[in-house]
Amino acid sequence: MMKNSLFANGLIVVIGVLMLLAALQLFGWGKGTSSLEPEGFDASALTQLEVLSEDLNKKVGPELVSQINTMPLFNLDRKRYEGVMGGEDDEPPPVVIESKPLKAKVTSIIMIGDDRYAMMVDQVTNEKITLEQGMPLPGEQGLWVVDQIEARQVTFVAEGEEPVSLELEVFDGTLNGKSRSTTNTKNNRNKTNTEQIEKVDASVAKKNSAEEIRKKIAERRAQMRANAAKGKKE
Question: Which UniProt keywords are present, listed alphabetically (predicted)?
Answer without folding.
Answer: Membrane, Transmembrane, Transmembrane helix
